[in-house]
Design a protein that fits this description.
The chain has 290 residues and is α/β, with parallel strands linked by helices. It folds into 2 domains: 186 residues, Rossmann fold (3-Layer(aba) Sandwich), CATH 3.40.50.150; 83 residues, no CATH class. Helices cover 27% and strands 18% of the residues. The protein has 8 helices and 10 strands. Strands 3-2-1-4-5-7-6 form a 7-stranded mixed sheet, sandwiched between helices. Strands 8-9-10 form a 3-stranded mixed sheet, with no helix packed on it. α1 crosses α8.
Length: 290
C-alpha cells in the first residue's frame, strides 16, 4: 500500500522531498508563503498557498497520514537571546485538522526546545485514540555534514514499534563544496572578521575529515557572515556558503530548483527539514501501512 499524506506548514518542500523519496504519496501541502510554494511547485509538489489558521479542515482531501513542520523560531533556545522564546499557537491548528480528520498516522517535527513547553507536548502526545512515540534528538549529522538536532513525534491509531533512525555513510563536508563557487560577499562579511561585531563567524573546514557545518538557519538570508567555509581561493581564506552548498547540507539533490532570489533560497533551506529525516519518517510510515 502507498499511503497518502497531507503536509502542513510545508515551506519549500524539504520534508515533502524526503517523504516522496521514501515512496509516500504527498498529495497535498499547505504553506502561507507564496514564494516558498512557488519553489515547491517548481519541484513537482502540490503546494497550496494558504493561512492554515483560517483553513477549513473539510476542504482537505482525506488522507492516511498528516505531517506538520510548524515554525520553530519561538521554541528555539536561540530565542532566549532576544526574549522571544514564548512558543506559539500554530500547533493548535494542526491539532484542529487532526481532531477532525483523524488520520491513521500523524507526525510533528520541531526543535528539541519544544520539550520545554509542557502544554504543547501534552497536546501533541496525549491525543485520545493514538499511540505516540517521541524521538529526540534526531541528528541530521547521521547522514549529513551539518549539526542539526530535531524532535519528531509520531502518533498512530494502532500500537507500533517505530524504529529510530539508523546511521549510514555520512556525506563529508568536502563533498558538498562547489567546484567553482559563485557567491555574494557583502562588506559586512569581512567587517565581522575584523571584529566589528559581537562574535566571529563559525568557520568549517572541508579539509578536516570529520568537520561539520553548524545548523543551517533561515537567518542566513539576512546575514551570511555568521557561518563560513574555508576556501583558499578567496580573501582571508574563507567565504559564505553558496545556495547550492547550503542546500546540500540539508540533503537536497542538485536537481532541486530554486526559482527565487538567493537570499530567499537561504531562508527556505534554513527553515526546512533535512531531507534524510523526512525519508526516514516516510520509510517508517510505509512500514506501518505494509
Amino acid at each position: 500500500m502507498i499511503p497518502s499524506l497531507n503536509s502542513y506548514f510545508s515551506g519549500a518542500g524539504l520534508m515533502d522531498e524526503g517523504l516522496r523519496r521514501a515512496g509516500v504519496n504527498v498529495q497535498q501541502s499547505f504553506e502561507i508563503d507564496e514564494d516558498a510554494c512557488k519553489v515547491a511547485r517548481s519541484n513537482g509538489h502540490n503546494s497550496t498557498t494558504c493561512d492554515i489558521t483560517q483553513k477549513l479542515v473539510q476542504s482537505d482531501q482525506d488522507c492516511d497520514a498528516m505531517v506538520a513542520t510548524y515554525p520553530c523560531t519561538k521554541y528555539s533556545t536561540i530565542a532566549d537571546i532576544h526574549g522571544t522564546r514564548t512558543g506559539d499557537e500554530l500547533y493548535l491548528h494542526f491539532l484542529r485538522h487532526l481532531a477532525v480528520k483523524r488520520p491513521e498516522v500523524y507526525v510533528a517535527e520541531n526543535v528539541p526546545g519544544m520539550k520545554k513547553f509542557p502544554i504543547v507536548m501534552e497536546t501533541m502526545t496525549k491525543l485520545a485514540g493514538y499511540f505516540v512515540t517521541v524521538f529526540c534528538p534526531v541528528q541530521s549529522q547521521m547522514w549529513l555534514p551539518q549539526k542539526r538536532d530535531r524532535l519528531i513525534i509520531i502518533g498512530s491509531r494502532k500500537p507500533f514499534a517505530w524504529r529510530p533512525p539508523q546511521p549510514s555513510t555520512r556525506t563529508l563536508l568536502s563533498e558538498i563544496v562547489d567546484e567553482n563557487p559563485t557567491v555574494e560577499i557583502p562588506d559586512y562579511f569581512y567587517n565581522r572578521l575584523k571584529g566589528s561585531y559581537r562574535d566571529m563567524p563559525i568557520v568549517s573546514d572541508p579539509e578536516q575529515y570529520d568537520d561539520l557545518a553548524p545548523t543551517c538557519v533561515a537567518h542566513y538570508a539576512k546575514d551570511v557572515s555568521t557561518r563560513a567555509i574555508k576556501d583558499k581561493r578567496f580573501p582571508h581564506g574563507i567565504r559564505p556558503y553558496t545556495v547550492r552548498e547550503y542546500a546540500r547540507l540539508q540533503g537536497l539533490p542538485d536537481t532541486f530548483k530554486f526559482n527565487c532570489a538567493d537570499r530567499l533560497a537561504y531562508k527556505f533551506i534554513g527553515n526546512g527539514v533535512s531531507v534524510p529525516v523526512g525519508e526516514w519518517v516516510g520509510k517508517e510510515i510505509i512500514r506501518y501501512f505494509n
